[in-house]
Design a protein that fits this description.
The complex is a heterodimer of chains A (238) and B (77). With 238 residues, chain A is α+β, with helices and mostly antiparallel strands. In chain A, 46% of the residues lie in helices and 23% in strands. Chain A has two domains: 141 residues, Jelly Rolls, CATH 2.60.120.10; 83 residues, Arc Repressor Mutant, subunit A (Orthogonal Bundle), CATH 1.10.10.10. In chain A, a hairpin with a 2-residue loop joins β7 and β8. Chain B has one domain. The chains are: A alpha+beta (238), B alpha+beta (77).
């Protein structure tokens, strides 16, 4: 295996593909740096490329016709985006934007479709991935309904931590408030609680994880189920 | 203009490290009131004491332009 191939494997979906199947898709994958703010897909617009991140975090934002928006889900190296592509639909249902500086591979939409039709293992993994993403979205809906802001913040920080893989997360209060669909001061006070418990350290634009096990304990049932389901869906595939 | 919504309450002072842009003092105050309602609603839901907290709205150079008592945004009648 050469170095370039090793880089592919930073994306967990590409990593789980049997090597013959990865080799078929590899020729069409193009490496991209995707700085924060890069729009990967726009609601109602055609999907040009499908992305497999190897680092960083993006979010899927759902917006009402009158312009209220809230995060529906986040993705990083564990998935692909836009998930609409798997249906064969050429149009993205959501705005998809990079929120923490990312890198990854993109494949033209048409080629993604061809792989879905001709590469059975590839299709199997993509369908598993959309099921995993649907589970994440469902648990976000549950969490929004039953958990308070501080617990939801803890859950969301853990989800970002899983995807970034480093203890320092470049997150502003403004961004977190959009993600949790609360006003900014609710983020400030919730972060104050997590800081007071010494789970995290918050500086301007930077959040540092200090005690992940304690943060998980605090989040209790707000965190863990979609992650467990993801592991189940992605194991024993081939 | 950038405004900061610091919280002063029974548990001490919580600094707003980032602030946010508003076109006028009035719009900043309006947002602070909406945020106070959200914070109060969360406290009520959790059965916590709602008395005591307030926002100190400051400008970039630290000048306090207004304080909003959290309980002042709750309409009892």
């Amino acid at each position: 295996m050469d170095l370039a191939e090793a880089e592919f494997l930073e994306n967990k979906l590409l990593a789980v593909l049997p090597s013959k199947s990865l080799a078929q898709a590899m020729a069409y994958l193009e490496y991209q740096h995707l700085p924060r703010g890069t729009q990967l897909a726009a609601a109602g617009e055609p999907i040009d490329h499908v992305y497999f991140l190897t680092s960083g975090v993006g979010s899927v934002l759902a917006e009402t016709p009158e312009g209220s928006a809230a995060e529906a889900g986040i993705f990083g190296r564990e998935g692909y985006i836009p998930t609409s592509a798997v249906s064969g639909s050429e149009q993205s249902a959501f705005n998809v934007t990079v929120q923490i500086d990312a890198a990854g591979y993109r494949i033209p939409f048409e080629e993604f479709r061809r792989q879905m039709e001709s590469n059975r293992e590839f299709a199997k993994v993509m369908i598993r991935a959309i099921e995993a993403f649907a589970i994440q979205l469902a648990y976000t809906a549950v969490s929004n309904a039953v958990h308070d802001v501080t617990e939801r913040l803890a859950r969301w920080i853990l989800m970002c931590h899983d995807r970034v893989g480093a203890d320092e997360l470049p997150l502003t209060h403004d961004f977190i408030s959009t993600m949790l669909a609360v006003r900014r001061p609710s983020v400030t006070t919730a972060l104050h609680v997590l800081e007071g418990n010494r789970f995290v350290k918050a500086e301007r634009g930077m959040l540092t994880i200090r005690d992940r096990p304690a943060l998980e304990e605090f989040a209790h049932d707000a965190y863990g189920k979609p992650e467990q389901e993801y592991r189940r869906l992605m194991s024993g595939l081939f | 203009m950038r405004y900061y919504f610091h919280v002063r309450g029974p548990d001490g002072f919580v600094e707003d490290p980032e602030g946010a842009e508003f076109a006028s003092d009035e719009l900043a105050t309006e947002e602070a009131r909406a945020a106070a309602r959200e914070l109060m609603a969360a406290k009520v839901t959790k059965g916590e004491v709602v008395d005591g907290g307030q926002f100190e709205i400051t400008t970039e150079n630290g000048q306090i332009i207004d304080t909003i008592l959290f309980k002042s945004v709750v309409k009892i009648e």
